[in-house]
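chain below, 532 aa
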Amino acid sequence: QHLCLSPPLLPFLLFYCKMKISVFLSAAVVLAAAKSATAFGVSSRNSMARAAGITPLNMVATEPEIVNGETRPRKTREERLEAASKGLQVHVVGLSIHHAEVEVREKLAIPENEWNAASNEICSTGEVSEAGVLSTCNRFEVYYAASDPREAMARVTNYLAKRSQLPVSVLRKNLFMLSGDDAVWHIMRVAGGLDSLVVGEGQILSQVRQCHLHSIEEDGCGGKVLSRLLNNAVAAGKRVRSETAISKGSVSISSAAVELSEMLSQTDLNLPFSEARLAVVGAGKMTRLLITHLASRGLERITIVNRSLGRPQELQEQFPDVDIEIKLMDDLWDVVGKSDIVYTATSAVDYVIDEQKLEENGLASGRPLMLVDIAVPRNVGEDCKTLPNVSAYNVDDLKAVVAKNTAMRQKEMIEAEHLLREEANAFIAWRESLSAIPTINQLQERADHFRQEELSKCTRRLSNADLSEKEMEAVERLSRGIVNKLLHGPMSHVRKTESVEGKQNTLKELSAMFRLEEDVNGRGRNTRTRRK
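prediction:
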């Protein structure tokens, strides 16, 4: 009672006292249960764990992980935690409609069912720890986490150059590269619809969600950090659309294409849009949206050209008020010849319509024809623009149409950015909390060492006691329970979300308070043994 202790020393003293109490309680259990004086040896560390029904972590066998036919050793929980706490930062490399022309974007486009295969290839050499691919008609982006930014950047860039068959020097002129907080802010804006060609469009949120879902699949490459980032981005996108008016009255790429053709119909075709004969090549999501917006403008007759009948028939059922005529690809040129406006939205890699094919089918001259291509890779060749009777447009030509939409949404964009900034800061704070894992592990190891040490002393002093297996388990559980309850407070405090500076100060204080930089014998961990 005469001893004056400074506040930082109180938790350490409490820790020491609790450990001594654990010895006393353990001895009480032993003495109460002792019936005879049979000597026994001190159990080893693993033997004690077995007596308590616990398998030591270093003895847990891990099954191999098979990805794309290759066998990889599955990482243990400790290895995953260690990787997450080694300073993994998130990065993004890619190109979008804001940075690259469609000619470059289409060379990197990857179908959704191949996103995981691309991620696995990027991670296969080890420079990149986690990866996820997002490929849409307006952007191609690789989100990844790595501890060495330079090596990881080189790996991703080389992969993109190989896939696109473009020199790295050419590719770099079109790529954007963001790291750390900038990468986090970028994916938040993407999910929120603020980075889209059409501000507030909803399709991109669905695509980011798919990126997250693929990353956490069995063959996905989204680890602890990246999967958390993508999940937070999806939540942020949902919050923006529910708490602001950013998506009200917004247009998609499909509706922008309809608006463009409506705006230019009189100029290019010398025909009112309401009188134009319309056709759509393809029957996917973009076609469904096209029909939705065309129907909203009172257009009731549309021809769909597709490779099969299944999807067009589904669209017939979805739009009973629209007269949808279905044709197969064999009738493509007959349909194009009878149409005034043809929208293309297929997943074909090669051009569906180009100058040569129009000439071969007698459509390179004569009455006006408008081609609106909203697919990436493109379905309509650039050379179609050279034909005097053809007006051809692609997704890059929609910028002028959506500029008006963006200007009308400035207020909603500011409100959305405030919400997105909150979500970005929440993820960054969580990411910084991972830096506490090594300190927490050291604290647990140190406490467990003292527990084992005191338990061994206790059993040696009571060598004349005859403990049953159940009594031994009770002693083990008692000692572990005291340590776990004692450490709960400090570890909970470390895990709390704080500023980066506050987190670092807390870790320093905890390390000094429990002398974590010293080994169990009181020497510094980095102290070298002097030569005699």
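Residues 158 and 212 are 24 Å apart (CA to CA). Residues 1-18, 20-75, 527-532 have pLDDT under 50 and may be disordered.
thats it, cya
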